[in-house]
Amino acid sequence: QVRVVESGGGLVQPGGSLRLSCRASGSRFSFGTMGWYRRTPGNQRELVSSITSGGSTTYIDSVKGRFTISRDNAKNTVYLQMNSLKPEDTTIYYCTAYVYSQPYWGQGTQVTVSS
């Protein structure tokens, strides 16, 4: 089965940095777009950032200039470098990997930004 596994979350002080990693594996087909979602106060998931297999990226406005997404296609791994973290970034971050239109979700990793 497809596995999507995140790592790198944790506790950091405001202004600090974290680097999230996510490796996808087990698909019979190639992974396309990969991305990061996070849980909102309304218990929804919002797209934070995405990256296509060709390297095209998107970012939600609130993280532009602070977060950078990248990927290693050979490893089916996506990264999210998170700088200048704010308390409002505190939530669970989920990795998503797409096989065509089918999304596969990781278990989530907790990011807490607090002094």
Structure description:
- A hairpin with a 4-residue loop joins strand 7 and strand 8.
- This protein starts with a strand and ends with a strand.
- The chain has 115 residues and is mainly beta.
- It has no helices and eleven strands.
- It is globular and about 45 Å long.
- The strands form two sheets. Strands 2, 4, 5, 6, 9, 10 and 11 form a seven-stranded mixed beta sheet that branches.
- The mean pLDDT is 97.
- The chain has strands at residues 3-7, 10-12, 18-25, 34-39, 45-51, 57-59, 67-72, 77-82, 91-99, 102-105, 109-113.
Distance between the ends: 40 Å
Sheet with the most strands? 7 strands, mixed
Assign an overall shape. globular
Oligomer: single chain
**Unreliable stretches:** none
Average the pLDDT over all residues and give the rounded result: 97
Give the helices and strands, then pairings.
Layout (H helix, E strand, L loop, with lengths): L2 E5 L2 E3 L5 E8 L8 E6 L5 E7 L5 E3 L7 E6 L4 E6 L8 E9 L2 E4 L3 E5 L2
Parallel strand pairs: 2-11
Antiparallel strand pairs: 1-3, 3-8, 4-5, 4-9, 5-6, 7-8, 9-10, 9-11
Short description:
The chain has 115 residues and is mainly β. Helices cover 0% and strands 54% of the residues. The chain is globular, with a radius of gyration of 13 Å.
Quick tags:
115 residues, mainly beta, four-stranded antiparallel β-sheet, 11 strands, 0% helix
